[in-house]
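Handoff note, outgoing to incoming analyst
You'll be picking up this chain. Sequence as last confirmed:
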Amino acid sequence: AVVSTQSTGNLQHVMMELGVRFHGALLDHLMTYQYSIAGALQLIQDIHRYKQTVHHFKEPFVDQLFEVMSTLCQLLIVEPHKLREIWDEGSLAKIEHGFLVQFVKLRADYRKSNIQSKLPAYSAHVRQ
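Most recent structure output, in case you need it:
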């Protein structure tokens, strides 16, 4: 339907917009839950499927958004003492630190494992 009725340039714009909006809606949704290890592992599988789906959009920016989301979800399962390693490297190093703190707070073990003390020092400026 969309493919047959739109020009190639317009189709690319539509797919980009769809991918960006889907990513934003999904991220907003993810931020409303708390995640156990089992829940986070299921989430990672779901995100992998979403990545496969949006890859068909053939929009590199959308692929990149979902790749970052996948890496972000790793913060929910990694051992607390390894958070800094994932936090400071690769695609997450470009994300605003306050957002990363809020995302890590979605972990069910955030308080029990005293994760706040394992985050980079700049997280102390974010409200608890």
